[in-house]
């Protein structure tokens, strides 16, 4: 089966090498609210709504870019891990990939619907921030779990 939309297999290892440390260090910096001063820059922004100034469509904002760096690293590495070919990519692997993606979307939006109904105020903003990453993470977890089950059953049959 021709899969032009998948990265080569070597991207999976690169993705894991970036994803694991980025996720751990990113969560630690969020929990401890660590923002090193040398990463504070004036950056271009859209939809500026400051308490002390007027609302603007475009402008410059002083921002610590650490969260943006980790967010970008996690998204790119998750894409590498999720959408890299397996060593032996066949139609059954493609079926598992598709089912895992559908399951991840259903599961993610189930959590989002629950959050819309029962989570409010600033906590809901945090749910939405984490929701950017969870579709890919749920897909990675389910896909790798299904692949490991497939490998175990293949070893069992031998």
UniProtKB/TrEMBL annotation:
The species this protein was found in: Arenibacter algicola
Entry annotated with the keyword Membrane: yes
Superkingdom of origin: Bacteria
Protein name (record): Uncharacterized protein
Entry keyword set: Membrane, Transmembrane, Transmembrane helix
Transmembrane segments: 14-32, 65-84, 96-118, 124-145
